[in-house]
Automatic annotation (TrEMBL):
Transmembrane segments: none
Organism of provenance: Chrysolophus pictus (Golden pheasant)
Coiled-coil annotated residue ranges, if any: none
Pfam families attached to this UniProt entry: MDD_C, MVD-like_N
Record protein name field: Diphosphomevalonate decarboxylase
Amino acid sequence: MAEERGTARVTCTAPVNIAVIKYWGKRDTDLILPINSSLSVTLHQDQLRTTTTAAACRDFTEDRLWLNGEEVDAGQPRLQACLREVRRLARKRRGDDAAAPLSLSYKVHVASENNFPTAAGLASSAAGYACLVSALARLYGVEGELSEVARRGSGSACRSMLGGFVQWHRGERPDGRDSVAQQLAPETHWPELSVLVLVVSGEKKAVGSTAGMQTSVDTSPLLKYRAEVVVPERMTRMARCIQDRDFEAFGQLTMQDSNQFHATCLDTFPPIFYLNDISQRIIALAHRFNAHHGRTKVAYTFDAGPNAVIFMLEDTVDEFVEVVRRSFPPNSNGDQFLRGRPVGTAVLPEELVSAVVVDPVPGAIRYILHTKPGPGPQLLDDPSQHLLGPDGLPCRSA
Ligand code: DP6
C-alpha cells in the first residue's frame, strides 16, 4: 500500500459488534485482559461502520488524529498502544530489510468517521479501534493475528476484527498472547438472522464502560460469580445455539446474559444504571410479544446505554416493527423512523394488538435501524475514499 514517495495512505472500514455473552471486567487494565470470555455478532457495515484513513509521511512532525472531522489528542495511551504494537509487528516481519517501503519512524495522521452517532451506545469504540488497527496494519504491510492489537484499543474492538459470530477468549497468560478473537461461524452461516437497533437516545452515556466495569470488578460479588461460574457454561451453550441455528435457545440466553450484565451493574457500588424507562418498556414488550406467540421470537440485548438491539428471524421483522411503531408512535419531526434494510408492511391481528401493545409512549424511540450480521474489516481500494488528502490533512468535514 505504501507509496514510494510522498504520503502513504490506506483506508479501511470496520464493523460494530454486539455481544450476546457480555464482556464486563478486566483482570489487567493496561493490557486489557478480560475476566471472562465473551461472544458477539458482527453487524453489517452497510448500516453501521467506521471508516478510517491512516497516513504516514517523512514530513509529518507529530502524530495527529481527527474523529468525525474534529482534531483530538493523538497522544491518548490506547491509540499509542495500538500504534506501538503494529509497528512492533512490522519490525518483526521486516527483520533487517532495509529496503522496507515505509519507515517506522515516520509520524502518522489518522482520520476516522462513523456513519452513526458516536457514544450513542452503539459500540463506536469497538468499530473505531478495529478500523484503526486494520488501516495501520495495511499501511505497514502487517498481516495475521491483529485482534490482540485491537484489544489494546478497546476490549470489545478485538471482536470487530472478524465477521459473523465471534468469540473472544479470556486467555490464561499474563502477557495476553492468548486473549484473542476467533470466528465461530461466518455471517453467511445464519442468513435468516435479523437485527433491529432501537435508538432511544443519542445522548452520551453517564458512566463509560471502562470506568464502570472497573468499579464493578472492585465491588460486585455477583460479577465475580458471573465470570467464574456462569459465563464459562454459557459460552459453550451459546456456541452450540449458533452452530445449530437454534433461535429460541439463542434468544433466551441472549436476553438472560444481557439481564445479568445489567444486574451486575446494579450490584456495583455505587450502582450503575444504563437502562432507562424506555429500555424497560422495550424489555416488557419483547416478553409480551413472545408470550403471545408462545415461543421466543424476539430477543433483546443492551450494552452500556439505553438503546436496544433486538434479534429475530427474518419472517418476524415486519410484524415486530409494526408492534414497535404502535407502541412508540414516532414523532413527525422529519426524522426518518425506519432506516437501513427495507421492512415490509404488516397488518396486525386485533388480538395481537390488545395483548402486546399496551400504554403507547409517543416519540420515545427516535428511530429503528434494520440490519443483519456482516463481514469483518474491509480495505477500500478507491483512492477517492481517503479521508486524508495527499497533504495528510482531512479532505472534507464529516
Ligand atoms: C457492555 O470494550 O467499551 O459493550 O475495554 O474498557 O474499552 P474497554 O471497554 P469496552 O466494553 C464493552 C462492554 C459492553 C459489553 C461487550 O461489548 O461485551
